[in-house]
Each structure stands twice: as structure tokens, then as C-alpha cells.
């Protein structure tokens, strides 16, 4: 396959502990990411911190507790508008979630699982129904609203140990696209799987080959987006990450996280991609992904 000549090196380092810190700062500080400027190769990762303590129950209700009451004023035991989160195993190593937050209609939030984070928004009723690919068998899901309210829940996901997935995530409009080529497929041919041809299995049906899922609401104030490719382990597959050179990222840097899930465990790397000068607008940068070690190398 032939790719554009503008190729960049991607700095990657494994960081399973710090993976959640910077996205929380990005989302909650109101920082606007516009044109990225050139900077050092290492940077803080995009993920959010763990929002719940170990041992959280499967159904968590977030209540606001009143300060200590005076002897003549009864204490308020719980908020009139609790937040609840329930998660379930939908089959196919997919986690389904139901969030109920009646006092937080049309509110931006972040969903996090196993270091993967993406943005969403409640409905006018304060509810949110979502589905995401499981990367770990513990099936733990955390939610944080922009005002700091949180909820957590978990469900055992044994099927996650039987799938192999790679995800890329980023915190701004210009982002990455996963391209997977099964059995040496050419661009646009059968076996080329990407956002325009995701090859998603029909509801209730088993997957035939790999497939790509898109996560995140790009219409929120600070979007966090992700793409996840689920491998067909029996099929030889080449995976590339693509970044378009645009007026907002040219001559700067793009940053993101790469997560690789196998056997129900996750390896995570952060990456910084130096983009070509602005005379290359309209071209593309391609980065090859080589499992099971999530080290990024230039694609030829």
C-alpha cells in the first residue's frame, strides 16, 4: 500500500497509572484546544482519574449530604435528585449502561472504562443510555459531570478475556482514524475496515471479521473522542492510525492515547505526533500499530 510521504514519529510510553489524570484537567478546566503548538514529545496522558473507591457496589447512587445539623433543625439525609448508574453485560464483550440524573438535564459528562474515556451528554430528562466495548473483565465504568458529580458501577465481563482490541483516543476536534486491512486488503477494498466501512455485526449476530466502533459526542463543549477496533484473531490484520493535516494542526503536534486489550488486560501508551508544515494541508500522516506490544512505528 502507498501512503502520503509525510510521516511522523510517534513518541509512546507505557503509563497505566497516570493514564487518567490530564483528561480530567482538560475537561473540567474549560481549556480550549485550538491549534496545537510544537512541544516536547512527552506529555500528560488523556485519561481521567478513577472516580470511585475500590469495592463500589454495582448500583451507586450519588447523594448530597447536608452539613451537620443543629439540635433544632433535622439533618437532610439525601438529595432530592440522586444520580444512579447501572451497567450490564450486553453480550459480545459489550457493556451497556443506564444513567439517571433527573436534576442534570442536557449536561456534558465523561464516561471512563479501563483508561478509555469519551464524552457524552444527558438527555432533557437527565437520562443517558450508552454502550461501550469492554477492555477489562472487571467491567468498571465511571462517570463524571462537568460540575464534579460522579457515579460508578461495575459488572463482570468474562467475554472481554476472549477478545483483542486496540483503541485510540484524543481530546479535540482534529483526531485519529483507525484503518484495519484484513488479509492484505487494499484501501477501499473488501477487508478494509474503518469509520466509513465499520463492519459492525447486526444486533444479536456474531461478528464476522474485525469491526470499528466510534465513541464520544463531538458536540459537547470539550469533546473526548475514541475509536476502537476489535480484531478477528484468526485473520491476519494490519492496523494503521491516520491523522489528516489541517489548518488547525499543521506545523504543530497531535496527541492521544493508544490502548491495547488482550486477555482482559490493558496496555496503554501515550503518543505525540509531530505534524508536517502547513504546505502539507490535505495530506495524511500514517502510523502503524503492531500488537501485542503497543509500540508505534512508521508505516511504509
What do you see in this structure?
The protein has a domain of 148 residues. It contains one helix and 19 strands. The strands form four sheets. The protein has a six-stranded antiparallel β-sheet, with no helix packed on it. Strands 12-11-15-18-19 form a five-stranded antiparallel β-sheet, with no helix packed on it. Strands 2-3-4-7 form a four-stranded antiparallel β-sheet, with no helix packed on it. Helices cover 3% and strands 40% of the residues. It is globular, with a radius of gyration of 20 Å.
List the helices and strands and how they pair.
Elements: E1 10-14, H1 21-29, E2 60-62, E3 83-91, E4 94-100, E5 108-113, E6 116-121, E7 127-133, E8 140-145, E9 150-154, E10 164-170, E11 176-182, E12 192-193, E13 211-215, E14 225-230, E15 237-244, E16 253-262, E17 265-274, E18 284-290, E19 295-298
Antiparallel strand pairs: 1-17, 2-3, 3-4, 4-7, 5-6, 5-8, 8-9, 10-14, 10-16, 11-12, 11-15, 13-14, 15-18, 16-17, 18-19
In short:
By secondary structure, the protein is mostly beta strands. The chain has one helix spanning 21-29, and strands spanning 10-14, 60-62, 83-91, 94-100, 108-113, 116-121, 127-133, 140-145, 150-154, 164-170, 176-182, 192-193, 211-215, 225-230, 237-244, 253-262, 265-274, 284-290, 295-298. Strands 1-17-16-10-14-13 form a six-stranded antiparallel sheet, with no helix packed on it.
Provide tags for this entry:
about 300 residues; mainly beta; six-stranded antiparallel sheet; five-stranded antiparallel sheet; 1 helix; about 5% helix; disordered N terminus; disordered C terminus
Amino acid at each position: 500500500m502507498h501512503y502520503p510521504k509525510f510521516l511522523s514519529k510517534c513518541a509512546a510510553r507505557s503509563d497505566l497509572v497516570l493514564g487518567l489524570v490530564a483528561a480530567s484537567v482538560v475537561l473540567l478546566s474549560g481549556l480550549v484546544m485550538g491549534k496545537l503548538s510544537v512541544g516536547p514529545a512527552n506529555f500528560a496522558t488523556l485519561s481521567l482519574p478513577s472516580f470511585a473507591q475500590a469495592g463500589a457496589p454495582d448500583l451507586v447512587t450519588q447523594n448530597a449530604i447536608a452539613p451537620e445539623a443543629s439540635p433544632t433543625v433535622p439533618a437532610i439525609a439525601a438529595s432530592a435528585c440522586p444520580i444512579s448508574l447501572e451497567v450490564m453485560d450486553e453480550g459480545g464483550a459489550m457493556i451497556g449502561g443506564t444513567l439517571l440524573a433527573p436534576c442534570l438535564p442536557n449536561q456534558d459528562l465523561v464516561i471512563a472504562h479501563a483508561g478509555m474515556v469519551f464524552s457524552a451528554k444527558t438527555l432533557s430528562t437527565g437520562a443517558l443510555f450508552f454502550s461501550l466495548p469492554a477492555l477489562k473483565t472487571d467491567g468498571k465504568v465511571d462517570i463524571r459531570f462537568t460540575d464534579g458529580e460522579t457515579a460508578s458501577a461495575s459488572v463482570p465481563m468474562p467475554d472481554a478475556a476472549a477478545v483483542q482490541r486496540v483503541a485510540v483516543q484524543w481530546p479535540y476536534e482534529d483526531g485519529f482514524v483507525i484503518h484495519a486491512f484484513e488479509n492484505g486488503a487494499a484501501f477501499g477494498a473488501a477487508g478494509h475496515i474503518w469509520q466509513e466501512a465499520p463492519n459492525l455485526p447486526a444486533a444479536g449476530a456474531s461478528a464476522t471479521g474485525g469491526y470499528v466502533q466510534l465513541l464520544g459526542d463531538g458536540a459537547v463543549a470539550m469533546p473526548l473522542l475514541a475509536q476502537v477496533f476489535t480484531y478477528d484473531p484468526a485473520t491476519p490484520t494490519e492496523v494503521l492510525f491516520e491523522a489528516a493535516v489541517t489548518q488547525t494542526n499543521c506545523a504543530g503536534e497531535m496527541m492521544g492515547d493508544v490502548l491495547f486489550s488482550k486477555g482482559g488486560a490493558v496496555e496503554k501508551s501515550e503518543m505525540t505526533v509531530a505534524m508536517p508544515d502547513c504546505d502539507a494541508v490535505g495530506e495524511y500522516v500514517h502510523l502503524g500499530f503492531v500488537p501485542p506490544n503497543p509500540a508505534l512505528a512508521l508505516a511504509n
